[in-house]
Amino acid sequence: MDSDVQKTRTWAGLLAVFIGDAAISVAAIWGVTGTDDAQSVAILTSAFTAVSTMTTAYFGIRALSNTAQAKAAAHSKEPDAAKAPD
Question: Which of 1, 11, 30, 79 measures 20 to 30 Å from 19, CA to CA?
Answer without folding.
Answer: 1
